[in-house]
Write a structure and sequence with these properties.
Layout: E1 3-8, H1 13-22, E2 28-31, H2 41-50, E3 53-56, H3 60-68, E4 76-79, E5 91-92, H4 99-107, E6 110-112, H5 116-130, E7 141-147, H6 153-160, E8 172-173, H7 183-190, E9 197-203, E10 209-216, H8 226-236, E11 243-245, E12 270-276, E13 280-287, H9 291-306
Parallel strand pairs: 1-2, 1-3, 3-4, 4-6, 5-6, 7-9, 11-12
Antiparallel strand pairs: 7-10, 8-9, 10-13, 12-13
Helix pairs in contact: 1-9, 4-9, 5-7
Length: about 325
């Protein structure tokens, strides 16, 4: 019997990508809502409660409202918004972090898909804190760049418009008030005592992302070298299907001493690099902001919840 799936917010970037990934699957029945009724709570409630799985690809307030419409105890909600990522009643959808994350995804009826920037940082921050290398009170600074597709429909139209503002030709730093919506999950899931300084840039290319963290070895609780950190990260992700640690200093992965941000576009893969020197140790996570950073992560969680190959329709 086909699994019934409803995508609430199929018109948005993430919802559309999930729909596209499901298009060739014959194990699913996609429930469709009439366009004129897609904001009607009565009609949405019918779809949600008739589904086995509902994906919420909505702004936070709308995602909360839709989640509350679910009265069917068997319906699994997978929320791609920020709304439930720090809620302990919801599974956090990053299975590679630890077996406990994977187990909760397998058993929970409520799954929160990580944010794109948050995925990049937490892939680095969680192992660093768990291993005891980075203190929980470490003064973390994050540098990140993303393609403009992560900014939503309005920004995509702005970037792709003829005669656009010349400022769009250059990387643009934003989140200037240090109140970016991904910061709470960055802090909580990584196990930090304080929110990091976060400097994200949106850039003039469509998709792909890098998130970078630097460590001053003199501030760490353990005396470690850059190679020690690389060994720890490699061990942490050794059994991961989608998250891979590149050779030390990028050996075997980088053809030049550059880490371009767009090479994971169109995949659900994430690459982690450890480089720098023994005084200033650098870590970078590279992935697709629309893949492992959004729709790909949602589909991966869906597959895990179903108990099937986590890479189905993601390879």
């Amino acid at each position: 019997m086909a699994v019934k799936v409803f995508i609430d917010g199929k018109e948005g970037t993430t919802g559309l990508k999930i729909f596209e990934r499901f298009a060739k699957r014959n194990d699913l029945e996609i429930l469709q809502i009439d366009d004129e009724k897609r904001k009607d709570p009565v009609e949405k409630a019918k779809m949600i409660n008739a589904s086995d799985y509902t994906f919420l690809c909505l702004p936070d307030a709308a995602a909360i409202e839709s989640a509350e419409l679910c009265t069917n105890p068997d319906t699994v909600i997978i929320d791609a918004s920020t709304a439930h990522r720090t809620n302990p009643d919801w599974a956090y959808g990053f299975p590679e972090l630890d077996k406990s994350f994977r187990e909760k995804i397998q058993t929970s009826k409520r799954i929160a898909v990580p944010g794109c920037y948050a995925s990049g940082f937490i892939s680095l921050g969680y192992p660093l804190v768990k291993s005891g290398i980075m203190p929980k009170d470490y003064p973390v600074t994050i540098h990140a760049v993303s393609g403009y597709s992560g900014a939503g429909k309005k920004a995509i139209a702005q970037y792709e418009a003829e005669g656009r503002n010349p400022e769009l030709d250059s990387p643009r730093l934003y989140a200037l008030t240090q109140a970016h919506k991904h910061l709470p999950e960055m802090k909580k899931i990584s196990g930090l005592d304080y929110e990091p300084i976060f400097n994200p840039y949106v850039c003039d290319y469509f998709q792909g992302m890098t998130v970078t963290v630097g460590l001053h070895s003199r501030l760490l609780e353990k005396k470690v070298t850059a190679h020690d950190v690389w060994e720890m990260m490699s061990e942490h992700y050794k059994d991961s299907h989608f998250v891979k640690v590149a050779g030390f200093m990028g050996e075997g992965t980088l053809t030049e001493q550059f880490i371009p941000a767009n090479t994971m576009a169109g995949t659900n893969n994430m690459q982690i690099f450890v480089y720098g020197n023994d005084d200033r140790i650098m870590l970078t996570s590279r992935f697709d902001n629309l893949g492992k950073g959004a729709s790909g992560a949602a589909v991966q969680c869906f597959n895990i919840s179903l108990g099937i190959d986590e890479g189905f329709s993601l390879e």
